[in-house]
Amino acid sequence: MDFAATRDLFHLPDGMIYLDGNSLGPMPKTASTRVHNMIENEWGALLIRGWNEAGWFTQPRKVGDRIGRLIGAEPDSVTVGDTLSIRVFQALSSALDLAGSSRKIILSDTGNFPTDLYMAQGLIKSLNRGHQLKTVAPDAVENTLTKDVAVLMLTEVDYRTGRKHDMAALTAKSRALGIITIWDLAHSAGALPVDLFGVGADFAAGCTYKFLNGGPGAPAFLYVAPRHANHISPILPGWMGHDNPFAFTLDYSPASGVERMRIGTPPVIAMAALEASLDIWDHIDMAALRAQSVLLGDLLISEVARGCPGLQLVSPRDGNQRGSQVSFAFDDGYAAIQALIARGVVGDFRAPNIMRFGICPLYIGEHHISLAAMHIAAVINGNEWDAPQFLNRNTVT
Q: Distance of alpha carbon 130 from its chain centroid, rounded?
């Protein structure tokens, strides 16, 4: 693939090396035109007719199918809307129902993103059926899978270290034991090839504002394996998930398939921006993207080791074992990231001491990585981070 050409498809400030696409992807250059067109020619000109004439009502399924191509999902198995936390909550409730009343353990790991665990804790409390959330070290998950486990809920790529779970192996063992699987793809979708159908996953969810470049607040997606879709009972039975919402009946009757997992009014303006990004993703070879991501990650690791040998790598050195990010531990990591941003190298910080650098080949090349490594060495070796303006923490890190 011509990644130099894809870089030209994104708006990136001159002189900036953007290594934070794992937190918020940059804006596709066509996004503002697409959103403007939606506002002026759809909302402005059509008003309420836009639900039918501009296809707003069916947009969640159409956008879902486009995302589905990137995550190995079957047609009509992905819907878009609401937030990732809501999607995890929905998936977990349905998964517990499928697992049956005799199994009480929700298994996750200590590397999972905290909000997924918060959703599990809240659901357990509201259901009051004796379920238990059990978290173990990431490398202990496989050996903790037993017939007592109801649901395995994991984020494929650890948000701090970039460590990647073996989705195929863990899903296969779970299915053999009758465990329902939920995969959080927040750091996978748009970063590496995913094959939900091929591995036999039950549920998956993810956000679209990171590697998929959908913009801040872009809606989340939810995958439900078709073998389950008509047998699950949504914990949040929303109007848009009704089989005939405009009949306005007082009792809920679920729509068929994944459509029953819709809740409220779709975020049409936000999805317009996401569609602009998917116009790019429609033409991306995920295998080629993954190969380039591993190459660039390996390069960053080797260049940092050469220029700043004292900086501790916490991501797997083997590219096949990590997602599309490289992370280092440094006690004053927050200040170091601020110093790097002042130099035009944008990464981010995750408590307690993690400096994260996202590797997005669509707009990052080898020369960007080499320059970033040079700046990292200068900031760390020269103690540039130890300056007053870099020590006070912002709300968002």
A: 30
Residue with tokens 């295998």: 287
Low-confidence ranges of the chain (pLDDT < 50): none
Report the greatest alpha carbon distance in the chain: 68
Phi, psi (deg, nearest 5) at residue 51: -60, -35
Q: In whole angstroms, what separates CA 143 from the centre of its chain?
A: 26
Query: Residue 110: phi, psi to the nearest 5?
Result: -75, -10
Residues 6+ apart with CB under 8 A from 116: 85, 88, 108, 153, 155, 184
Contact predicate 223/71, CB 8 Å: yes
Q: Put the strands of the sheet holding 325-329 in their side by side order.
A: 312-313, 325-329, 354-358, 348-350
Report the SS3 class of residue 193.
coil
Q: What pLDDT sits at residue 1?
A: 82
Q: Is 130 helix (H, G, I), strand (E, B) or coil?
A: coil
Compute the distance between CA of residue 27 and CA of residue 362 in angstroms, rounded to an integer. 12
Q: How far apart are CA 184 and CA 299, in angstroms?
A: 27
Q: Give the active site residues.
A: 113, 184, 209-210, 356
- Which residue shows structure tokens 């708006």? 11
- Where does the chain show beta strands of DSSP type E? 10-11, 17-18, 27-28, 78-80, 105-109, 132-136, 149-155, 180-184, 203-206, 221-224, 312-313, 325-329, 345-346, 348-350, 354-358
Q: Please give the Cα distance from 98 to 117 (Å, whole number).
A: 20
Question: Which pLDDT does position 228 carry in this prediction?
Answer: 98
b (16+ CB within 10 A) / e for 202-230: bbbbbbbbbbbbbbeebbbbbbbbeebbe
